[in-house]
Structure formats: C-alpha cells, structure tokens
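G., the chain you wanted modeled:
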Amino acid sequence: MIRNFFTSGLILAVGLFVAGCGTMETGSSNASVDFGKKSDLSIYKVSEEAAPEKEAVPLKPNLSYVGTDYMMQLKDSAGEVSTARKTYDQYPSEWNFVIVDSRPAPVFNEGHINGAINIPDSQFDQFASLLPEDKNKLVIFYCGGITCELSSNSAEKAAKLGYENIKVYQEGLPEWKKAGNYVTITSSYIKGLIMDANVSRDDKPPFVILDARPYTKYFESHIPNAVFADDTLFAQKYLGTAPANKATEVIVYCGGFSCHKSHVVAEELLHNGYSNVKVYSGGLPDWTAQAMPVFGTAYSGGSFNVSEGQVNRGITPDDFMKKVDSGAFILDVRTKDEAKSGVLKGSVNIPDSVIHADPKDIADQLPKDKNAVIVIHCASGARAAGVVNSIADIGYPNTFYLNNAIQIAADGKPSF
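Predicted structure as tokens:
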C-alpha cells in the first residue's frame, strides 16, 4: 500500500510539473526536480507497540511477606560475619534466621544478600538438606524481585516439608540494592573477572579488587589483580586510590566469613558514593580451598621478608595457649556482639575499631606493668594483626597476636 501511495503521488507531481512548464516563461526559473532523490517513507510506517511490562507475582494468602526495611533491620541485628560458617552452603548458625536465595546458581554467584544460602527453586528437592534441622527457625526466601515467582514457590515447598516459620522477601535483590546495600559474590564470579578473555578485551568494563587485610598478609598471598587496602588505613590513606568513576565495580575481600574488614571497606565505599560494591565474603580461605591461583611470597617459590626490621608478633595456637596458661593478659578485639557468644576466661574485650581511633585512650584498661605479656586475638587473626603494633607502640614491647582463626564456646573453651 505504501508503494502504491508513493507511485501515484510521484505521477501526480510529474504531471503538474509538465503542465506548469507550458505556461512558464523560458529562463524564468532555474528550479529542477531531483528524480534520483529517495523519499523518506518512515512517516508511513506504523510504529511497533512497546512490549508490556512483566506483571508482579500475585501475593499468596497462605504466605507471609516482609519488605526491605524489615530485612535491613534483621541483618543489622545479626551483623555480617560468622565464625561458624566455612562454605557458602552453610548458613550462619549464630543467626536466628536463615536467608535462602531461590535463583539459579550462576545468578547467585554473581551477587546475593550476604549470608544467604542458595537453593534454586528448580532443584529444591536436591538441596533441601541445606535448610535448618529446626523447622521452627525463621526461614526467609527471596529471588529476583516482584516479578519473580521462585521465592514463593520455594516457600510453599518448604511449608510442605513442615517448616512453620516461613517468610517471603518478594521485593528481592533489586530493592535490596536500590536501598544502598552491597551484595556478596563467590569465587567463580571472580574467576571469570580475572581471566584473560575479560581483562584484555576493551569491550569489557573495568573492575577493582581490594584486599582489606593487613599488609603482611597481603604480601604473603592475595588474589591476582587485588590491590592492598587495609580497612584500618582505607578511609584516611587509600580511599583516594579508588576508581574515579564511582559506578566502577569494586570487589572487597579479607580473611573469610569471620572477617569484618571487607565489610568495613564496602560500607566506606557506599558512604562515599560508590554504587557497584560487592564483597567476596569467603575471602582468601575460600579462594585457596577452590585451588584458585594466588600471588605473593608464600607461593612465589622464593623468599622475601616483608616484615624485616619489625618484631614478628604473630604466634601459633600452641604458643598462644602457652602464654595464656602462663598468665598473659588477653586482649579480645572482636565486636561486643561477637563476644556475646563466648570469651576466654579473664580476657578484656576492646573492639579493634576503638583501638584504631586512639590507642592511648585504652591504655588504662591494659596492664600497669609495661613489660607484661599481652596476647591479642579476634576471630580470624586479621584484626588482631592490625592492632598489635599499635599496642606495642604505646609502650608494651611484649605484645603478640594469634595468627590463626579461633572459636570460643559459651563456656570459654577455645578451638582453633
């Protein structure tokens, strides 16, 4: 129809032009018609209708739903770390709730709510054993937002298994990120980033990996491409080295699920306007457990003492317990919430953040005898390493830290 319309119009135009020539004076005009010019036919085309937006999943009357504010308050009450968690298949047993991501594994690996376990709805029966044994424990399912039905499907399946305290976070990951929260990733996601097929292509976006552990730990071993960014120095010294483009993907890691440092740096980045922040909560322990490549002196085949000129203050669990049994002053630098789960008998709890603020301010809580032996511990060894020299520098030369992970039961019994 468009072609017929155009052909008829063209014949009419030519006829008018010829008829007009019979009445025009010769040489009265230099106007001409460009018969080779192509006409714009787009004005005759009917525009395609926009695809309708996917509708939100209807809320089911048999399920209980929670929103983003509820989830943020719940997470704030629990904190971000877990001394008991060793793999991404384990939920943090210290928390009085379990978060389940019902999306497929590849999507979970790219970013999920910290602490969540992955039970894909399509494989629910296969992975249902990851759910808690206690069927009265609060279990919260989420997926890809209001249009995603995976979380509600999985919640109904859990109910059929006898779980009685189930909630669905229908707003899911999109609203979680929109509220200004970072997400957690796994080793497989970082593996993809550091491959040559990603790093060497100019059509792939840039990324930055930050190692939030102390420098000596970083020097020994770190993930390829990672940059040193100890959380205790980050805000005042290394924030300026972060990408100028605040939409750049920034990944932070430290000493594993029990380590706070990566979460501290991530929060600092969010506070300063970075919008694409992710935490690799499994950290270096998970990375090495997956047999991934590591850079540093511990894997170089050579030797280099990056601590040359400094006292080696890191001690093993055996040396730590010998000093404790000999009456050493025990400084616990975990958070107050962590200490609630159990403390070593006679220890003094001063969070590392308080010590970093001003070591001299806590001097009155330390031994009066400056030659007293002080042993410091946290959960993984990273935070203790970060403050040991600060304590030594205010006049305690016999200060050491446990260079190892430790768990303390409610009765005060340690395990390493």
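The chain has a mean pLDDT of 87.

Shout if anything looks off.
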